Amino acid sequence: MRVSSFQLVVLWTSLAALFAPQGTQANTEKVIFTVKYGSEEQSRGSDGLANNSIVKDTKGGALDPAQWKRLSSPHTIIRAESLLPSFYKTDVTISALGQHAAAAAAVATTQSPLIKEIVAGDTDLQNRDFKWYILEGLEDGASFELRISYPATSPADFDMVVWTLEQAQEQLPKDLVFNQHFPQSTMLARIKATYTGVSYRSDGISGPETYPVPYNIVLERLYFMIPYQALKLAAVLAVVVVVGFGFLTPRVHRFLVDIASGGSSHIKDGKKYE
Fold first, then answer.
1. Long-range residue pairs from 13-16, CB within 8 A, at least 24 positions apart, any chain
2. What was the pLDDT predicted at 46?
3. Alpha helix segments (H runs only) across the chain
4. DSSP code of 111?
5. For 25-81, how does the pLDDT look when each residue is reduced to its tens digit (9 = 90+)?
6. Kind of pairing, strands 156-164 and 143-151?
7. First CA to last CA across the chain, in angstroms?
8. Has this prediction a pTM greater than 0.85?
9. I need a surface site. Which of 55, 102, 141, 253 has the fewest CB within 10 A?
10. Spatial distance between the Cα atoms of 6 and 218, rounded to a whole number of angstroms
11. Average predicted confidence (pLDDT) for the chain
12. Strand 186-195 relative to strand 69-72: parallel, antiparallel, unpaired?
């Protein structure tokens, strides 16, 4: 039996596919931005385009920079975050919730603490919650990817906006002076989720629209537009391939050839026959 190099390549590929991590059922949204401190082009929306129509954050009670979580270069991941989604202006759920907000709130308070109340009389369902994150240690001129992944079973759209300190200052109360909190190599990210499902229940039982959407958020530096973690994995795979083809493959090939050669002969009456 003769084993070709091609068969060995197929063997290595099959083993790699066997032990590769399996995919998960999750949605991913991201924004790629290049750090340019002081540039008006730095403001980016989740579609990668400049976003000049940002709704100001009026929820002053949540605007405490000391409580904001930090994402650092070159790679940081924060898991198990959650955010109560807002609603689009034309969403049919808004009118339904407006009519039965009190009933939904009463039910929500008796369930899991993870369920947020729908407060009776809340007329701001289009602008519920924002979450802010501190992006620190960002090198000027470097490119980064801010990425969010969340369950495919959660019908929501995430809007991600990245600002310099000066741009964020224009969107927030003037009594928050960011230059007193953060160094210049810092940017801020604001996250908002919008509910995209239609799941209101007329029986007063709270539906998915009353649940926060869980998500993971990742900041990752890009090298030649390749994410930092992927670049490390590519380097490891390159080393494995070089070692495999340059060192292991020839030896495995010779070993298999020797076995095949030995199996093609047999001994009869004390003599070896081919």
1. none
2. 38
3. 5-19, 92-99, 101-108, 165-171, 228-243, 249-263
4. S
5. 789 999 999 998 765 444 444 333 333 333 445 444 456 788 899 999 999 999 999
6. unpaired
7. 14
8. no
9. 141
10. 39
11. 71
12. unpaired
